[in-house]
Write a structure and sequence with these properties.
The protein is mostly helical and about 120 residues long. The chain is about 70% helix and about 0% strand.
Amino acid sequence: MHDLVEQAKQEEASHATFGFSAQPYRPDQALSDLLAILDDRIESEGVQVGLPIEFLHQMWTVCDFADTHISETVWLKKNIEGGSGSKSEVRQQTYQALIEYLEALPEDSQTEDPTPN
């Protein structure tokens, strides 16, 4: 996740260098980017590191359920803290909200509705 935040910072810097304005970036885009990278990593290294085949599907399901909660959390943080809404900031806040969401899930929710307590 940290790599994706750093990548966004580099993209922002290169766009600024060439005078391009930043495009709006949403938490759902950050989650899609994370899941795309996870898919690539699972295809290339998943079996080697012991990830179950259904791990990606589980993450998609959790992210789907968490999307509204994460979007609201990121929106609140941006408006309370006066953030810029940059791609790197949205990614950082989205991934932090996802981690908090995952940590709030009950242990036995792996097959049930992934709604935090």
